Amino acid sequence: MWCSLHAGRSPLIVTAKPLMLSAEILTPEAERKEGGRVLMKCTATNFDSQHVVFEWQKDNITSRQGEGTVTSDPRFSFVTEYEMNNIVIIIQLIITGVHRDDSGMYTCNVIDTRGASGDNLAASVSVTLSLLLLLLLVYSHHIAARRLNCTVVTIGK
User: Fold this and answer.
1) Residue 120 and residue 117: Cα distance in Å, rounded?
2) How confident is the model at residue 9 (pLDDT cuts 50, 70, 90)?
3) Between the N and C ends of the chain, which has fewer C-beta atoms within 10 Å?
4) Secondary structure of the chain in the HEC alphabet?
5) pLDDT for the residue numbered 69
6) Using an 8 Å Cβ cutoff, are 127 and 40 in contact?
């Protein structure tokens, strides 16, 4: 996006880079098991790192970067990385000791903290976590003992 302002003879051109936000689950699907560990990543590009906060949301549970986990669940933790002079911000959500009810849609929100009325949602992106559920089927079958009589016949000798 760009705009220009003509002040006298020389135009002033201002170029704004587009804001980009993406989310993905880094843990391969085959490794997403109960009791295991899941790693999700939210990548934000061209956001002002001084005035934004990131949060992950699932159902009515919110985990916010910088404030720890709002739910006080120690299984959820954040790792934040800054690349290219703070142009790219990577926010990882790590869930350890995964439970079946951790499956579902997770939304990565970018919150702009400069708003006069408090926090304002600047951008949002979602991913869906599904776990590999191992179902153990116990098959119990009782067979009554039967007597089997066999007669062996040799042909050709």
Assistant:
1) 8
2) low
3) C
4) CEEEEEECCEEEEEECCCCEEEEEECCCHHHCECCCEEEEEEEEECCCCCCEEEEEEECCEEEECCCCECCCCCCEEEEEEEECCCCEEEEEEEEECCCHHHCEEEEEEEEECCCCCCCEEEEEEEEEECCECCCCCCCCCCCCCCCCCCCCCCCCC
5) 47
6) yes
C-alpha span between 48 and 53 (Å, rounded): 10
Instruction: Tell me the domains of the chain and their CATH numbers.
Output: 19-129 (2.60.40.10)
| pLDDT reported for residue 7 | 55
Query: Using alpha carbons only, what angle is made at residue 28 by residues 25 and 31, rounded to the nearest 5 degrees?
Result: 120
Per-residue pLDDT, averaged over 21-34, amounts to 91
Under a CB-based contact definition with an 8 Å cutoff, are residues 90 and 41 in contact? yes
- Are 98 and 51 in contact by the 8 Å Cβ rule? The answer is no
- 117, two tokens: 């009325």
Tokens 């699932």, residue located: 58
